[in-house]
Amino acid sequence: MEFSQVFILVFSVFSVFLCCFFPSLHCSRLHYYPKQPHFGLASQISIPPSPAPKAAFPSPTVSSSDSAAIFNVLSFGAVGNGDTDDTQAFKMAWDAACQVESAILLVPNQYSFMLQSTIFTGPCKNGLVFQIDGTLMSPDGPDSWPKNNSKRQWLVFYRINGMSMQGGGLIDGRGEKWWNLPCKPHKGVNGTTLPGPCDSPVAIRFFMSSNLTVRGLKLKNSPQFHFRFDGCHDVLIDSLYIKAPAQSPNTDGIHIEKTNDVKIFNSIVANGDDCVSIGAGCFNVDIRNITCGPSHGISIGSLGIYNSRACVSNITVTDSVIKHSDNGVRIKTWQGGSGSVSKVTFNNIRMDTVRNPIIIDQYYCNSKGCTNQTSAVFISDILYANIKGTYDVRSPPMHLACSDTVPCTNLTLSDVELFPAHGQTILEPFCWNAYGALETLTIPPVFCLLEGIPQSLPQNDVDRC
User: Fold this and answer.
1) Model confidence at 462, in pLDDT bands (50, 70, 90)?
2) CA atoms within 13 A on the CB side of 436
3) Which one, 33, 119, 321, 383, has least CB within 10 Å?
4) Helix (H, G, I), strand (E, B), or coil: what is residue 191?
């Protein structure tokens, strides 16, 4: 152990001793540490996380030796010049491939296919592979979108079981003209927006589907979410690269809702909203080896909007890097909701210049008109372990803001070390009605966490799902 590390440990223990036994000292909100440990830690942030487990089954590949039937969209009349509408050719290729066991629907390399909003419907025969080696492009903005087509979604896969979507190709949402709609958040005067149509399409949506694999693809510039999974189960997402500008609104990388048994591995996401967002009704979600940022971090929520009930459990985020983001690992809920978030683990995560590395926000609101309410989503059994790195000094490194009437319980912090990205002044964490324990000494020390469990929880407000 280096001298600087020993100094920090001794200083922190001495600080705790002084604050506990000499309350008249009025411990300051600011703590000071030598600069050297900060730079030593920052130099390790770029080290990639440990690789996530590989899939138990390999991805099918297309070659002349494959016995599977190959349905090349060019054979169904697709042109692939980036301007011609190839939607009907893709529909015919889909309908043909859907009826054949272990079929491969091939989007060939060196072609760009423009598709209108389309629903690809199942069920299909087992083992269907949607092999994207070329480029898929959406219409270029709202003015190019047919009036009769839904503006909430682009490519939808409905009631599909056992499909793999894979390849080295690109899916281009061409979202810039959508982001610039007058209704979208702008950096204008006071962040004002103007009235008008605001629907924007999700790029790829899976709805009521199962046993899905999505692997190896590149996505960029979706008008809204890049991937969305609704009412799905048994989903493997592996080795994706998702990119959109940092200021692009609502461009979540991967969003799941009412979806369970999900694995999200080995992916890179840089966008204008959450890298991964987990909505109501999700459980058994394993996220590993994600490099995230610039972004809004990895989020559970928002939950409980419009006094709704939300249940989320058994979520693990591990072996990941979050950099240059507004948030790190976040749980966000609206006041007035019900249900619970429980059994969540954030482990082995490196933070690089993140504004809110660890945040629970039970007062989430996207306007100025939100009023205090007594009911809330109950948050419990949350573990933060081995979370290290640097934070943007505009916000405290830990922000645990729990409901006035429904406290957070059993929050556990272990081996947490967060230093300012600039300067030597370490801000004190913020806690409100947050109960939990420190398994190890943290940097900075978390004096504000309440010990034990609250004396009572209003049973009418706590729905443990």
Assistant:
1) low
2) 27
3) 119
4) helix
